[in-house]
Design brief:
Layout lengths: L1 E8 L6 H10 L7 E9 L3 E9 L13 E2 L5 E9 L2 H8 L11 H12 L9 E9 L4 E6 L8 E5 L2 E5 L2 H8 L3 E2 L2 H10 L13 E3 L4 E6 L9 E2 L4 H4 L8 H15 L6 E4 L4 H14 L6 E5 L8 H10 L5 E4 L4 H6 L1 H8 L6 H15 L4 E3 L4 H5 L3 H13 L3 H14 L8 H4 L5 H6 L21 H12 L1 H13 L4 E3 L5 H8 L3 H4 L7 H6 L6 H4 L11 H5 L4 H9 L3 H4 L5 H12 L7 H16 L4 E2 L6
Parallel strand pairs: 10-19, 14-15, 14-17, 15-16, 17-18
Antiparallel strand pairs: 1-3, 1-9, 2-3, 4-5, 5-6, 6-7, 7-12, 8-9, 8-11, 12-13
Helix pairs in contact: 1-4, 2-3, 5-28, 7-8, 7-20, 11-28, 12-19, 14-15
Length: 621
């Protein structure tokens, strides 16, 4: 895990200063080493690659980056982990004993030299890659299948910039980018982030996951990215299976190879099904009592998961490390600017602040690698919304009896129906209707229109959550906030083999008996106790923002509304309307809920933290 940066230019001017600026800005992503590599072809191009190293595999100088061949013809700047590097090393003939390979960087380097872009389909892992070939005058750019590792691109002033984090590009260009309403409006109205390649900064885009781009440096030609992977739904080759043993086999192997590390590693144990499954699988390979876990607990009963954490810990005979995250409302508000700078965009909510506090504690405890359960909900229908999408799909296809049967089973066995909230369902309304009811200015209310409803089928909606509507923003904040503390987070459920397998499972097998994730619950029977596998609720670590918006946050919020807001000045919201709607909210009236108003607070905090790099919306766009 690292931070990468790069600049290609048609100009004859030096790239040392802007590239060094990018490396310095991303130092938190790799405090264990940094480096740069420059080359040029007179009258055609200059190129510079930068790297910040977080040493995880092979802690020696042998794996420092940018990695450059002895003849200077190849250079690599790479962020991520290729978990099957030992197997690839053998295939490449790098070693005779696969266990003696030093690390994955040299394997990636040799794989790209040997196989070129075909290497990406062989990689099992997460990555963002810049690979320079001096002989062919090309730069090969790639990002992993699901976008676990970040990579941003910006064409500005005859230069092309690449970086792991947006702030590195902002610092290098020293330019004010226009605020992007196509991103701001879906965030404020529906809480949607990272739903496409656009960012809050017009002109800076996210490199498309699952693709590569081969850039001709003589022309600085930027061809459309070429896909090397497609989700099974996108391929149109969906099949169905009912075999939970295949889920178990792939999940176990994913955890096994993601435990490869030369530094301390722990599992983020929340007490839920997903993190407990990873803890149980890790125990299978490391041995009973040998898995380190890190868990968030709270003095607030509604936020605390201590009971289930304790159950899983006893099951695998460990003493979990418990981190009591302060839920003092005003203290958490004070942390928003710091967390926002790390995140490069507005926060999703105060749970992001809690995650940052957890990462700070993990760093103090000496962990450099953490395993997370991210992705399982999107793959196996874990969120409550998926239950309703499934029922909607059954009714749409005329399966009324099965729909009633599942509803009754769920009502008897789970809390899904009782946890339904109309305030949560608002984001799935017709886009135009919702935007018109909020404080968004009419001039931009149609910007970035997103339909978050069912679509044509359950499978389509699940795929959309995985690739656009849910997972990308979770991966975004998890990467930025963990890497702000120089910690790598790995996600075993996002092994592409498991993603592809889950996509072939019929929704009927994911909701069998009224349970969400039914087939996953069966697959982990031998490693997770029944009291966790068949939990009725889905809680997770929550922050009582809705309660605080009517109590502790009232004064800070009214103070914000009483002053000229950048969100208004920059052309996104009608401040007078927002003030009136918040007053109605406090009286228990109006259409909008606490999340709408708190997102506005987070958005204003973002604009103020990045004010030096943002200019108002162009109303002509």
């Amino acid at each position: 895990m690292c931070g990468i940066s790069g600049i290609i230019s048609r100009k004859n001017t030096g790239l040392v200063q802007p590239l060094n600026s990018m490396v310095a800005t991303q130092r938190h992503r790799g405090p264990d080493g940094q480096g740069t590599h420059f080359d040029k072809l007179d009258s055609f191009y200059n190129i510079g690659l930068g790297h910040n190293r977080l040493a995880i595999l092979d802690l020696s100088e042998h794996s420092k980056q940018p990695m450059v061949s002895q003849d200077g013809n190849f250079a690599l700047s790479y962020n991520g982990e290729i978990y099957n590097f030992q197997e690839l090393a053998t295939e490449l003939g790098l070693v005779h004993n696969c266990n003696s390979v030093r690390g994955d960087t040299e394997v990636v380097f040799q794989a790209l030299r040997t196989w070129g872009p075909e290497a990406f389909s062989r990689f099992n892992g997460m990555w963002a890659i810049l690979f320079y070939d001096r002989r062919s005058h090309t730069l090969l750019v790639s990002r992993d299948r699901l976008g676990i590792k970040p990579l941003y691109v910006c064409k500005h002033d005859d230069n092309v910039y690449f970086a792991s984090e947006i702030k590195a590009i902002l610092k290098a260009t020293n330019y004010k980018f226009r605020l992007n309403p196509n991103v701001a409006v879906p965030y404020l109205t529906r809480g949607l982030l990272d739903i496409g390649s656009e960012t809050f900064f017009q002109g800076i885009t996210a490199f498309q996951p699952g693709t590569y781009q081969l850039i001709d440096l003589k022309k600085i030609d930027m061809p459309d990215p070429t896909p090397f992977w497609l989700h099974p739904f996108k391929r149109g080759t969906l099949e169905t299976t009912k075999n939970s043993s295949s889920v178990k086999e792939v999940l176990f192997d994913s955890v096994k190879i993601q435990l490869r590390s030369d530094v301390p590693i722990a599992v983020l144990l929340s007490g839920g099904i997903d993190s407990s499954a990873i803890t149980g699988a890790a125990t299978k390979y490391l041995g009973m009592g040998n898995v380190a876990t890190l868990s968030v607990v709270s003095d607030e009963p509604d936020c605390d998961e201590s009971r289930f954490i304790s159950i899983m810990a006893k099951h695998v005979m460990i003493n979990p490390i418990l981190v009591n995250v302060s839920t003092n409302p005003l203290s958490m508000l004070k942390m928003i600017p710091e967390a926002t700078w790390s995140n490069d965009q507005p926060l999703c909510g105060l749970s992001d602040v809690a995650h940052l506090l957890l990462m700070q504690q993990a760093k103090k405890l000496g962990f450099k690698v953490l395993l997370s359960g991210q992705g399982a909900d999107e793959e196996f229908g874990g969120y409550n919304k998926f239950f309703y999408f499934y029922i909607q799909d059954l009714l749409k296809r005329g399966h009324y009896f099965l729909a009633i049967k599942i509803i009754l089973a769920s009502a008897c066995r789970t809390n899904t129906l009782w946890e339904f909230r109309w305030s949560e369902a608002l984001r799935y309304l017709n886009p135009a209707k919702l935007e018109q009811m909020t404080f968004i200015k009419p001039e931009v209310e149609n910007a970035g229109s997103v339909n978050a409803g069912l679509g044509n089928s359950y499978q389509e909606r699940e795929c959309k959550d995985l690739l656009e509507l849910s997972l990308p923003q979770l991966l975004h904040f998890e990467d930025r906030l963990s890497m702000s503390q120089s910690i790598e987070v790995r996600v075993p459920f996002l092994d592409h083999r498991l993603v592809e397998l889950a996509a072939t499972i019929s929704p009927n097998d994911k909701f069998r008996g009224g349970w969400s994730k039914s087939i996953l619950r069966d697959a982990i029977a031998e490693i997770v106790p029944p009291s966790i596998r068949f939990r009725k609720d889905k809680k997770g670590f929550t922050i009582p923002e809705a309660k605080w918006m009517r109590n502790e946050f009232v004064r800070p919020y009214q103070n914000m509304l009483a002053k000229p807001m950048l969100a208004h000045a920059f052309g996104i919201i009608d401040q007078e309307k927002a003030t009136s709607q918040y007053a109605s909210f406090l009286k228990g009236k109006g259409f909008l809920n606490a999340r709408h108003f708190f997102r506005l607070y987070l958005f204003e905090a973002f604009l103020r933290r990045f004010e030096d790099f943002i200019s108002p919306v162009n109303m002509k766009t």
